[in-house]
Inverse folding.
């Protein structure tokens, strides 16, 4: 087995981990959501918690997938075409990550400090 084949196999494992984080994390989040939704005491806010936790699973999975793409491009496929493809993939995933964070938190990531500024008391 060559070095490149070993790296390809490692990248496949990392990609599988990223996909598993999204799938199994989503299943766990949904399994937690159902009993919360069925209980009148915990029903308020349960949908928002579901969306927030599901978004976190997706973001974590996307980050792991980006790592796999970077390793594959830097170590194995060192061509201009693969670098451009990696750049496009990273840009799309970053935009998706930002949109998910805004969807979950309702505020741009760089504006979070304004929400909980200790000097203003807000």
């Amino acid at each position: 087995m060559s070095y490149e084949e070993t790296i390809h196999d490692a990248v496949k494992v990392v990609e599988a981990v990223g996909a598993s984080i999204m799938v199994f994390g989503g299943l766990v989040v949904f399994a937690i959501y159902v009993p919360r939704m069925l209980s009148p005491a915990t029903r308020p806010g349960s949908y928002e918690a579901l969306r927030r936790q599901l978004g976190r699973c997706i973001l974590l999975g996307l980050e792991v997938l980006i790592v796999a793409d970077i390793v594959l491009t830097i170590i194995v496929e060192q061509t201009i075409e693969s670098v451009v493809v990696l750049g496009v993939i990273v840009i799309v995933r970053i935009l998706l990550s930002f949109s998910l964070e805004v969807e979950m938190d309702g505020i741009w990531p760089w504006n979070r400090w304004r929400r909980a500024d200790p000097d203003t008391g807000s």
Remarks:
- The helical segments are 3-38, 46-76, 80-105, 112-115.
